[in-house]
Every structure is written in C-alpha cells, then in structure tokens.
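Subject: design request, 330 residues
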C-alpha cells in the first residue's frame, strides 16, 4: 500500500510538470481517500461468530428425531455425569449431547455402514466452523474462543463420515468440536478415524460409533505441554512454578512455550470457558457380532494409537452407560 507522503510527492511532481499551482491539503485528502479505497476490508467471515447458511434441525430438547444414531434407539445414560446444562442436539447423520458447562460435546453418536462411508468419500470438506445458534449464548462456544488457542478444532463426529453436503456442513458446528492437540488431531487420531471407517466397510450391517472427550482431574494438556517445554530446556525445579498458572508462565518466559492467547490453566479452559479435554475416546459397537471396543487416547502430541479397551472398561472410566440394555463382548 502506498503511503500518503509518497502520493503527495507524486502530486507535487505532476503539478510542477504541468505548470499548475499545488494545493497541499487537497492532495493529502485525495491521497488518504485513495489509500482507504485500496485497503481491503477485514475478512469478517474469519473474524466473526455468525452462523453460515447451514440448515439445522430444530432444537426439540430430545433425540426423538435422530434416534437412529443409537443402538436400539437408546441414547447413553448420563447418571451423575454432567447432568446440568446438557442439551441433546440432532443433526443430519449424527447426534450430539452437548454440555453448556464445558462448551463442548459430551459425546457425538453416529450410525455408519459401508454405503454411507462410500458416499462420504465423494463429499468435499466445507471447513466452515460456526457457533450453533440453537445453544443459548452463555453456553455456546464461539469462533473467538478458539482464535489463537494453539489447539485444533477437533471433530467428534468426523467430517470424513458425512455422506451429504448438508451433514458435512453441519459437522463443523462447534457443538461437535473440542480443543484438540494439532499433531494428535492430524496424525494419531486421524489414524483411528480411518481404521474405524475401514472396519465399517467390512462389517455386515450398521455399526454404532460414539466419540467424546474426557476431562481427567489434574491432567491439563496446556500444563502438560508447558512442562514438556521446560523439560526440553532442562529448566531447574527452582525456576518452575508449583501451580498450573506458574508452570505455564515459567514455560513462556524461560522455554519459548507458546501459550494459548486466552486460557485458564487452573480450570484448563481456552477462550471464554471452553474446556480442554485430557483424553478422547471412540467407542465402536457392531450389533452383528455383539462386539464393542473403545479407542482411548491422551489429548497429546505424544499419543499413539494403542490397544483398544473393553466396553466395560470405558464405562468404568467415564461413568457413562453408552449402550443401555446391552452387554457386548470385546
């Protein structure tokens, strides 16, 4: 962009060459106007939190219109688990139980089969994340919450499972998203999603998949990453803090750690209260074999896909009965 000074000097030169008198004030005004006209407007689509033109089912407060995403049409039982400010939300192709307390899903549920996976391969990602207007503003995660967070916006029901343009667009609702370590999201967790789709294509019929975050007390990815940065620089214990806030602050000062733009290390949140999970899980249930297993992974760049855990172990760790009335084997 040309400076006002440069444009004024240019105007003087042109006036002199043409034998005209020169008005400095007029030239400055014209130069400023020229700059304003040439300056591109801010990218409001990237900066705002407005919902794009995505058709969403009505918020009925139940899963009545999307029970096909659950085995036997029965949603998980959340006895004693985040009972306050929960909100069931239906989408085209998946269902979400959302937590207004943590501004993340508790879980996202899907019914998958070979035909749907094949159709999903033909769809292009929209990559247009949006705040879901069906959720009250005080409980709603926004684009601004994730800006400068250092975390990816990680899908629970994956975009790669979406078989129609509308379900693809809907999957980018922030009610289906958690703050996820970028390397984890793009590598180890992506491998788990691909392995799940590969299994679904081999299965005899519908396979039910439930994915969600876990928030283990005392295990905050922000603090864990700061600690690794301090370890890499061999920072002595005397220089480290003994609180979550102190550890992150020390890592920023002494180890070049890039902390989220807005965060609360004690509460382990980013933005305005979006909770950062310590772990992620993906439960896979195949009714044709009555088998179920769960992938369990830390929300960490160091995590690698490991041996799945049993359904019973997942229930024990989370306190959620994901398949009520069923007793699947491993």
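Subject: RE: design request

Done. Sequence follows.
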């Amino acid at each position: 962009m040309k400076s006002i000074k440069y444009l004024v000097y240019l105007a003087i030169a042109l006036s002199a060459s043409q034998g005209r008198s020169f008005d400095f004030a007029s030239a400055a005004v014209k130069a400023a106007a020229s700059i304003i006209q040439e300056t591109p407007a801010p990218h409001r689509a990237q900066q705002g939190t407005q919902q794009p033109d995505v058709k969403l089912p009505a918020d009925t407060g139940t899963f009545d219109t999307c029970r096909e995403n659950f085995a036997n049409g029965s949603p998980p039982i959340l006895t004693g688990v985040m009972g306050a400010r929960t909100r069931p939300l239906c989408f085209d192709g998946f269902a979400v139980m959302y937590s207004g307390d943590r501004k993340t899903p508790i879980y996202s549920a899907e019914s998958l089969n070979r035909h749907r996976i094949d159709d999903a391969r033909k769809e292009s990602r929209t990559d247009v994340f949006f705040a879901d207007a069906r959720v009250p503003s005080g409980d709603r995660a926004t684009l601004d919450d994730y800006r400068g967070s250092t975390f990816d916006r990680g899908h629970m029901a994956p975009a790669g499972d979406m078989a129609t343009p509308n379900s693809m667009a809907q999957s980018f609702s922030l009610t289906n998203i958690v703050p996820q370590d970028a390397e984890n999201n793009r590598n180890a967790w992506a491998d788990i999603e691909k392995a799940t789709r590969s299994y679904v294509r081999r299965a005899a019929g519908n396979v039910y998949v439930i994915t969600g975050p876990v928030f283990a007390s005392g295990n905050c990815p922000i603090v864990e990453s700061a600690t690794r940065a301090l370890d890499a620089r061999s920072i002595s214990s005397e220089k480290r803090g003994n609180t979550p806030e102190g550890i992150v602050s020390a890592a920023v000062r002494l180890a070049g750690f890039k902390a989220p733009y807005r965060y609360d290390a004690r509460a382990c949140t980013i933005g305005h209260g979006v909770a950062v999970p310590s772990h992620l899980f993906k439960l896979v249930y195949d009714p044709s074999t009555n088998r179920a297993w769960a992938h369990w992974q830390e929300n960490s760049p160091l995590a690698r896909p490991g041996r799945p855990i049993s359904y019973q172990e997942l229930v024990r760790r989370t306190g959620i009965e994901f398949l009520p009335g069923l007793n699947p084997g491993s």
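The first helix runs from residue 4 to 17.
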